[in-house]
UniProtKB/TrEMBL annotation:
The chain crosses the membrane at residues 82-98, 110-127. The keyword Protease does not apply. It is found in: Cell membrane; Membrane. It is a multi-pass membrane protein. InterPro entries: Bestrophin, Bestrophin-like. Its main location: membrane. It catalyses: chloride(in) = chloride(out). This is Bestrophin homolog. Coiled coil: none annotated. Forms chloride channels. Keywords: Cell membrane, Chloride, Chloride channel, Ion channel, Ion transport, Membrane, Transmembrane, Transmembrane helix, Transport. One of its GO terms (cellular component) is plasma membrane. Belongs to the anion channel-forming bestrophin (TC 1.A.46) family. Calcium-sensitive chloride channel subfamily.
Length: 130
């Protein structure tokens, strides 16, 4: 709905080895220049402000394209995975409740199911897998 059928055909027929996010910006620049020549944009300052905002948006898209272009090295994912699992192993031991007032002989750890720690683990581990 953002393009006419003719524009969509031109866009699809354009051969580019990379993403074609820049094509609408070129079209916009050409249309804005044409509008200035036809008098639809009355002042060159307005045209320049319009083009500056468009260039700012285009640079943000370029930055986003750069993030997509460069992959995350495998060692980072391995370090994060190790950190998540180590953190939750420490939480599993560290968040256990031990009532020292009871004075049970030989019971140094109170083994119960830490429900909220498990929920936190499933959330972080699921997020890690995404």
């Amino acid at each position: 709905g953002f393009m006419t059928r003719y524009e969509r055909k031109i866009f699809d027929d354009l051969k580019s080895p990379h993403l074609k996010y820049w094509v609408p910006f070129v079209w916009f620049g050409n249309l804005a220049s044409k509008a200035r020549k036809e008098g639809r944009i009355r002042d060159s300052v307005d045209l320049q402000a319009l083009m500056n905002e468009m260039n700012k948006y285009r640079s943000w898209c370029s930055l986003l394209f750069g993030y997509d272009w460069v992959g995350i090295p495998l060692v980072y994912t391995q370090v994060v995975t190790l950190a998540v699992y180590t953190f939750f192993f420490a939480c599993l031991i560290g968040r256990q409740f031990l009532d020292t007032d009871q004075g049970y002989q030989g019971h140094d750890l109170d083994l119960y199911i830490p429900i909220f720690t498990l929920l936190q683990f499933f959330f972080y581990a699921g997020w890690l897998k995404v």
